[in-house]
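Now for a sample.
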Amino acid sequence: MIIKIKHEASEVQIEQLKNWIKSQGLSIYFSEGEHNSILGLIGDTSQVDESLINALEIVENVVRIQEPYKKVNRKFHPEDTVITLENGTKIGGGNFVIMAGPCSVETEEQVIETAKHVKASGANVLRGGAFKPRSSPYSFQGLGAKGIEILLKAKEVTGLPIVTEIMEPKQIIYFEHVDIIQVGARNMQNFELLKVLGAVDKPILLKRGLSATYEELLMSAEYIMAGGNSEVMLCERGIRTFEKATRNTFDVTAIPYLKSVTHLPIIADPSHAAGMHKMVKPLSLAATAAGVDGLLIEVHNDPERALCDGPQSLKPEKFDDTAKAIFKIREILSEV
């Protein structure tokens, strides 16, 4: 249930209503907007007298919602969530970011060189995998904690915030200085991990599972937000379909749909979507035109020798060309 409060309501009146709601055994999600405030009632609202609340002087209207996700629901929070990183970079609410870098951290030289290139081309955040979930046990699994140390060194050199993936709860001790914690597609429904991240005071980049529905993705975000962490981004990275020509099928429909039902920033990963570097630019442009809040792009200074996902990684010069095209699309969108 959602209660929309009139703009002229006093703090005292709002507090009185909150206290009454809590006395009914319900929790409250409060969102204060520019024109209206929203009280989201969480719990069993079946016995709440809707007409009684509607009759209150400070109430504009009351709406019962059917969706199982509450905190991520745009009805609870009509205005876009804007996530602000430590260096001032903003994500969401019209703010656009590009997160770029290698799939996996291999060497300090590789990461720092790539970081310098992507920053020069307009990237706002450095991406890189330290802990790597791989389909084959014989594939490169990442450098682990040492990989995070290398990313932090690159952050020190370039000033770029970093985003890297966590695989299990016990790894959280290594993420103290990481700016954004990524949850990979395979862990989207690792609920114990999501609960741990709900107690973390850091932005979370939650990737859509390989075969996950929109509702399943939103419910995974709900797990994190229910734990107290409201800084969540959703990432469309392509889903598994019957098509074999590409690694995954990029679901561009997810971008406008998710933006219509949730206030959380939406990020797109065109690199994993197709698994081919030649597809990254057109998919990046498609996602940008669809209104995405940011892109997650793999860039490697020597992709032919990459230890992970070389075929889908852009060389720095190709990334520069892609970034310029992305910014042109953004300029056009600003005029529409």
About this structure: The chain has two domains: 2-63, 83-335. DSSP finds ten helices and 14 strands in the chain. The chain has a mean pLDDT of 93. Residues 74 and 261 are 5 Å apart (CA to CA).
